[in-house]
Write a sequence for this structure.
């Protein structure tokens, strides 16, 4: 009986990790709107699992600041101001630039191939105006570079900001700018990495992440008391 309980608990923990990963991806690509609620029951029904792994996944996202506990069995996406969103993008630009600078010395030929494929995917999604998959490929591109820094704590902080800014980044590229402004200088970043020019890599990555600062700091303060994607 005890062994069966351990197996069941292990399976539920594994499910919790899978559900956490799926919800994390949805937050990053902006599938959830600011202020949107997520109930344990509905998420469990969607993934056809018991409440326990869902509760654990939502709790972990809450710890990371990606969700806020709204009720006993529900959470919601934080509804921050445009100014607060701009501040998060600013912090991300600094942290991600630092990680990229460190990563420059560690990148391998295989990493270049991975990054080239991701740029190709982004270009395909950009032409198809597929914001969801574009954002996922964009995150994967930047995340791969960050991971090459070898600084786990730094990567965790950056991932946390991606989780919190996902809904605003998605809204920004679909509603606030023209299609041409989706296209970032990813090839320039890749070229700087090939040259092992750490200072230029940092500058380019900071500029790429700073895009969100420019968009949301431009929204008049009187109209950004709460940014709800409206």
């Amino acid at each position: 009986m005890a062994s069966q309980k351990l197996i069941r608990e292990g399976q539920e923990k594994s499910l919790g990790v899978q559900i956490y990963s799926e919800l994390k991806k949805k937050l990053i690509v902006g599938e959830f709107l600011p202020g949107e609620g997520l109930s344990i029951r509905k998420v469990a029904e969607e993934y056809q699992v018991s409440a326990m792994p869902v509760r654990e996944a939502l709790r972990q996202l809450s710890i990371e600041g990606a969700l806020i506990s709204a009720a006993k069995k529900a959470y919601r996406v934080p509804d921050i101001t445009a100014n607060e969103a701009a501040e998060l993008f600013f912090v991300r630009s600094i942290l991600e630039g630092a990680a990229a600078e460190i990563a420059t010395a560690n990148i391998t030929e295989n990493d270049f191939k991975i990054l080239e494929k991701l740029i190709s995917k982004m270009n395909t999604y950009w032409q198809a105006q597929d914001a969801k998959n574009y954002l996922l490929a964009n995150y994967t591109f930047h995340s791969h570079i960050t991971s090459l820094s070898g600084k786990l704590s730094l990567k965790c902080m950056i991932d946390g900001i991606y989780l919190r800014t996902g809904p605003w980044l998605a809204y920004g590229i679909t509603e606030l700018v023209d299609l041409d402004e989706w296209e970032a200088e990813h090839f320039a970043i890749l070229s700087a990495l090939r040259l092992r020019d750490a200072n230029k890599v940092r500058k380019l990555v900071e500029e790429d992440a700073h895009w969100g600062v420019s968009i949301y700091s431009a929204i008049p303060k009187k109209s950004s008391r709460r940014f709800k994607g409206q």
